[in-house]
Design brief:
Blueprint (H helix, E strand, L loop, with lengths): L1 H18 L6 H12 L2 H24 L1 H8 L3 H20 L5 H6 L3 E2 L2 E2 L6 H9 L2 H20 L7 H16 L6 H10 L12 H32 L5 H31 L1
Antiparallel strand pairs: 1-2
């Protein structure tokens, strides 16, 4: 028993750390832009809020997936719309960001001569991940792949890989496609409600394992975002101001682009 707990703890932390490393996601982009402003506390709070959502997504994906889909699938397009609107305004704010050489040299959290707002961040991380249904499906499938690989090489995962395999297979049978992105959520939304499965009973042992794995994965992701924040703040004064301002505009455009993609995906679901 102890062996399986240690195994899922290490696997979860490693997986969370690696999965968080790409900077193409909205959370990473938002943290990058604020770290380059020197807004340390906002970045940490945002990372913490995002990690909390990831923890609950892992636990739900193992223990309550059938119940979740029956309640969650009708809300998917509306969550996408809410997320797209929120990300759009965040993207516009990042796009408009402009810093000066004096602010960088002083090392203060100043933007356009004003102190950066040190409040907030937690709510931003929570909202962005809660309104991003693709994150849930991504965590489900990636966790299944990681735990299945670990089990195949002889590591004791306590049966979590089997539970996740059952969940992934049930979704693929309903949608008729592999669960990879928002395109597959389109099919899930239309078909899942017609084929609800009874929620299987899970033992307290399995539930405890899912808590450990979820906490480890969330901690791994938070650890990477923490390191990224510290590195960017430490070396931001070595980057030319002109390049920083161009980078802010680029990051803002990417966030706005993601918001349009989420809105387009919501429309596809509603009109299909």
């Amino acid at each position: 028993m102890l062996e399986s707990f240690i195994t899922v703890l290490l696997i979860g932390f490693t997986a969370g750390f690696i999965f968080a490393m790409p900077i193409a996601g909205p959370i990473s982009i938002l943290i990058t832009s604020n770290a380059l402003k020197g807004n340390y506390k906002f970045c940490i709070r945002t990372a913490l809020g995002a990690s909390i959502v990831e923890f609950f997504y892992v636990v739900i994906s193992v223990n309550g997936i059938a119940l979740l889909f029956s309640l969650y699938s009708p809300l998917i397009p509306y969550l996408l719309i809410a997320g797209s609107v929120f990300l759009f305004f965040v993207g516009v704010k990042v796009f408009k960001t402009k810093i000066t050489l004096e602010e960088i040299e002083k090392g203060e959290e100043l933007i356009d001569g004003k102190k950066v707002d040190k409040q907030g961040g937690m709510r931003t991380g929570l909202i962005i991940n809660l309104t991003n249904p693709s994150l849930f499906f991504g965590i489900l499938t990636s966790s299944f792949l990681v735990l299945s690989f670990a089990s195949s090489v002889g590591l004791n995962t306590g049966g979590l890989d089997i539970l996740l395999e059952e969940n992934v297979n049930s979704i693929q049978q309903i949608t008729g496609t592999e669960l990879k992105s928002l395109e597959s959520i389109d099919s899930t939304y239309n078909l899942m409600q017609k084929n609800p499965d009874a929620e299987a009973e899970r033992s307290s042992y399995t539930f405890a394992l899912s808590l450990v794995y979820g906490a480890a994965l969330a901690l791994g992701g938070f650890s990477w975002l923490f390191i990224l924040t510290k590195l960017l703040i430490k070396y931001r004064n070595k980057i030319k101001v002109e390049f920083l301002n161009i980078l802010f505009k680029s990051l803002g455009i990417i966030l706005i682009g993601i918001s349009f993609y989420l809105f387009y995906s919501a429309l596809r679901i509603l009109l299909s």
